[in-house]
Amino acid sequence: MIKNAVIENIIMRRTIRRFKAEQIKEEELQTVLEAGMYAPSAGGRQGVLFAVSQDENINKKLGRIKKRNSNVKMSSGDSYISREQPSIADDISIVNAFYDAPAVVTLFVPKGFLYGSYDASAAAENMLLAAHSIGLGGCYIGSAWESFSDPFGQEILKKWEVRGDYYAALHVLLGYPKDEQAPEGKARKDGRIIRT
Fold first, then answer.
1. 184: alpha, beta or left? (left if phi > 0; alpha if psi -120 to 50)
2. Which residue from 26, 29, 90, 178 has the fewest beta carbons nearer than 10 Å?
3. Which class for 57: exposed (0-12), middle (13-18), buried (19 or more C-beta within 10 A)?
4. C-alpha to C-alpha distance for 138 and 187, rounded to whole angstroms
5. Average pLDDT for runs of 10 along the chain of length 196
6. Is 187 exposed, middle or buried (0-12, 13-18, 19+ CB in 10 A)?
7. CA distance 128 to 191
8. Is 0.85 surpassed by the pTM of this model?
């Protein structure tokens, strides 16, 4: 395999669910957002909206709403998400689905646009890779609409002036990793490439 800085960054990136309380720097945030905006999008539409929340109270409330509405099937035995950095499915005592990340970016996409969620996913991957490359930790949280499915969430959508023809596709959590060492990477499974 050819190796360079980009490939190394992809290989070394890890999901982070333990964050320091310290807020990230504005330049770091702008770098991650810019990376997201340069992601591929269907037809070059650039339809993803990025709503940034660095408000601790809002993030805690939305994270709790997300956890409550997720209907997570709890891990058991050998079936789990992460033993090193447990997810809300691994540890019932985790009440905030945003893991107390100091910055939460919600990616909104047009309702009814067939490729909206794919565009958001591509943007999220760019953001996570950019975050890792500058020393930030990041985590992808899907089904973001669950965070806004109660009166508080609806109030926040109005406060943020999110257009009614858009819906929340996913969240990207950002912050400085709490642990000095990133979680151990898992070996890649064989048999996933089909050559024709």
1. beta
2. 26
3. exposed
4. 20
5. 95 95 98 98 96 98 94 77 85 92 98 96 98 98 95 97 97 93 83 94
6. exposed
7. 26
8. yes
